[in-house]
Amino acid sequence: MLTGYLDQIKAHGDPERASQMASYHKADRIYLGVANPVLNDLTKAWRQELDVPARIALADALWQTNIHEGRLAASKLLTQARIRPDATVWDLLQSWLPDFDAWAVADHACMAMQKRLSADPDRLDQVEHWTQSDHMWTRRAALVATLPWTKQNHPKPDDLHRRDRILGWAAGYVPDRNWFIQKSIAWWLRELSKHDPKRVITFLSQHGDTMKPFARREAGKYLKNQSA
After folding, report:
1. Fewest CB atoms within 10 A around its CB: which of 75, 134, 161, 164?
2. Residue 27 Cα distances to 3, 67, 222, angstroms
3. For 39-89, how does the pLDDT look when each residue is reduced to its tens digit (9 = 90+)?
4. SS3 16
5. Listed residue (89, 66, 68, 65) closest to 77, CA to CA
6. What is the CA radius of gyration of the chain?
């Protein structure tokens, strides 16, 4: 099963692009040089032709190749709002966390996680455990995977509670000086500021002075004429 789908990806490879991608992403794996829009088209077609168990099996196999485009395609296969049942999908996505070692692969997997968290917010109880991980990329994923809670214009009371809960995780990350962790805090706050500037202003008034300067600036990028 895997070979035919992997061959479809390889057919679009570009050695020059692959070399550039390896230099840019730096993670030690094979790069084929396939553009992201191509992967979008391929995985869209696969989602239409495969049932959920087959998609899960293919995603797992593609991830295990440790090929950059294979892992991106695996994530895209599972990035869908409606998947029923989805417990096996969620379990598979969580099993990938220890393999995260570069932002592009991690972010694509986190986009799939966003859909599953939105479908079942009770899973935030599991995500909270990620915040205590020794693995930086797992800690970062706790914020990237919960970005949907930054984007609601009219959140319900339960979602406001979840928003505050995740902001608490972000506050706990502030002393961590790792660039990617600081970037994830800034990303969460920047997106939230578009919909809930008051909470961002409060956060920055409490924690902004101890964030890295670049993160503090990025977090407040869309706060117009408002001081934290």
Report:
1. 134
2. 24, 11, 32
3. 999 999 999 999 999 999 999 999 999 999 999 999 999 999 999 899 999
4. helix
5. 89
6. 18
- Element holding 192 (H helix, E strand): helix 179-193
Cβ atoms of 103 and 96 within 8 Å: the answer is: no
- Asked, as a colleague might, if the bond just before 85 is cis with ω within 30 of 0, I would say yes
Distance between CA atoms of residues 14 and 48, nearest Å = 26
Check residue 228 and give its pLDDT.
43
Distance set, CA 121 to CA 109, 149, 158 (Å): 17, 10, 10
Q: Which pLDDT value is given to residue 194?
A: 96
Contact predicate 122/137, CB 8 Å: no
* Averaged pLDDT of the chain: 96
Residues 6+ apart with CB under 8 A from 197: 222, 223, 226
212 phi/psi in degrees, rounded to 5:
-65, 145
Asked if 5 contacts 76 with a C-beta cutoff of 8 angstroms, the reply is no
pLDDT of residue 225: 53
Instruction: Give per-residue pLDDT as tens, 84-130.
Output: 899 999 999 999 999 999 999 999 999 999 999 999 999 999 999 99
